[in-house]
């Protein structure tokens, strides 16, 4: 159930103030230390940010997709590393349980995830399976009253902080492709699971990705998420929601970069006047604002479609992810150009955003995968 307008506005204003007063001032510190301070994570718990998408009956806020987008647009106004702390729990890490979990799985995990007591991660990508999600090689072989997992998952966000994993693994190696894959919800402390060290990355310092290795990891049948052989379906439905969420993050970052660019263009003087008076600078600002507005409009419409279960939403979610992730890259590039030399040095933080946003075109489906999803939907469904 949607929030009443007053409550929704209060939530958005609270998040906006938290971003402005608590997160923005420590962006450089997080980039330098590669760690979001524990007190900030605790404040996120107290604000209920871990439970944005988890139903109220399990202690979450139970936001609609439209409401979640509005909150995420505010969280996007600062370093994406902060949003990443809650991102997997709000999105791909918890939504498999929300959508497909049985009563016991929901009762065990959702209250802990909603409160931030537990953090979740989504284990799909492998050394040989990323964009081609149906080629998962990690196995979950049925054995007695459970399954034995073996394999490696790669680039798993928040794995070093996680308490529980949603894992895609091949439970029937004799069936090629998507139909042989099942989904599991597995506690991280299960014997046979090893978490690798965080990878050094181009950007988003403070947001960690690690390998997750399964070696003869035995789990009971109660860990099966949904029906056996349903894992690919679980992953795709979770990713639909996740792509709308990521598109909103991209658009929030673009908004921040536009505001920074406008402020600099007003203040910076060359040839005896503010650089914002020059038409070529104005053109870059105008293009950025237009693309931002287009992305925000697309995302809000698609979020409403998601909430109403309208047909075609999956294709539109991919359209949002494709456009917004490419858009924010262009906005970041223009911001560096408007700032000139100042945009290239670390003091202003623009070069950090330039690096941070590059990942958005890669994770939760590359831009090329989104193009394929969109085109296949058109070819299969468009009436002419």
In short:
With 384 residues, the protein is an alpha+beta fold.
CA(first)-CA(last) distance: 37 Å
Which stretches are poorly predicted, pLDDT < 50 over at least 5 residues?
none
Assigned CATH class of the largest domain:
Mainly Alpha
The radius of gyration over CA amounts to 21 Å
Written account of the structure:
- Helix content is 51%, strand content 15%.
- By secondary structure, the protein is an alpha+beta fold.
- The strands form 3 sheets. It has a 4-stranded mixed sheet. It has a 4-stranded antiparallel sheet with strand order 2-3-7-6, with no helix packed on it.
- The chain folds into 3 domains: 5-115, Butyryl-Coa Dehydrogenase, subunit A, domain 1; 120-227, Butyryl-CoA Dehydrogenase, subunit A, domain 2; 233-381, Up-down Bundle (Butyryl-CoA Dehydrogenase, subunit A, domain 3).
- A hairpin with a 2-residue loop joins strand 2 (139-143) and strand 3 (146-157).
- The longest helix has 37 residues, at 231-267.
């Amino acid at each position: 159930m949607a929030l009443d307008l007053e409550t929704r506005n209060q939530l958005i204003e609270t998040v906006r103030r938290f971003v402005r007063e608590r997160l923005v001032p420590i962006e450089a510190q997080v980039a330098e230390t590669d760690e979001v301070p524990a007190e900030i994570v605790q404040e996120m718990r107290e604000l209920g940010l871990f439970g944005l998408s988890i139903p109220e009956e399990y202690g979450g806020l139970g936001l609609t997709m439209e409401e979640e987008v509005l909150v995420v647009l505010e969280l996007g106004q600062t370093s994406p590393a902060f949003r990443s702390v809650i991102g997997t729990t709000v999105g791909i890490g918890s939504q498999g349980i929300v959508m497909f979990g049985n009563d016991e799985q929901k009762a065990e995990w959702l209250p802990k995830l909603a409160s931030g007591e537990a953090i979740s991660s989504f284990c799909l990508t492998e050394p040989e399976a990323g964009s081609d999600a149906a080629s998962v090689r990690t196995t979950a072989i049925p054995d007695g009253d459970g399954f034995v997992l073996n394999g490696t998952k790669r680039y798993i966000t928040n794995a070093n902080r996680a308490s529980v994993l949603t894992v895609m693994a091949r439970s029937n190696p004799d069936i090629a492709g998507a139909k042989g894959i099942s989904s599991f919800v597995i506690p991280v402390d299960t014997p046979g699971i090893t978490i690798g060290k965080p990878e050094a990355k181009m950007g988003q310092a403070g947001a960690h990705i690690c390998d997750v290795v399964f070696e003869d990891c035995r789990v009971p049948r109660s860990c099966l998420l949904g029906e056996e052989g349903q894992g690919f379906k679980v992953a795709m439905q979770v990713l639909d929601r996740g792509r709308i969420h990521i598109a909103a993050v991209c658009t929030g970052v673009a908004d921040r970069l536009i505001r920074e660019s406008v402020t600099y263009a007003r203040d910076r003087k060359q040839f005896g006047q503010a650089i914002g008076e020059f038409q070529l600078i104005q053109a870059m600002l105008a293009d950025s604002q237009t693309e931002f507005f287009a992305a925000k409009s697309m995302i809000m419409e698609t979020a409403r479609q998601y909430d109403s279960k309208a047909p075609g939403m999956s294709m539109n979610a991919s359209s949002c992810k494709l456009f917004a992730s490419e858009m924010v890259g262009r906005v970041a590039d223009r911001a560096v150009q408007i700032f000139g030399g100042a945009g290239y040095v670390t003091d202003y933080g623009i070069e950090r955003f330039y690096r941070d946003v590059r990942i958005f075109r890669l994770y939760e489906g590359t831009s090329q995968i989104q193009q394929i999803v969109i085109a296949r939907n058109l070819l299969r469904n468009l009436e002419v």
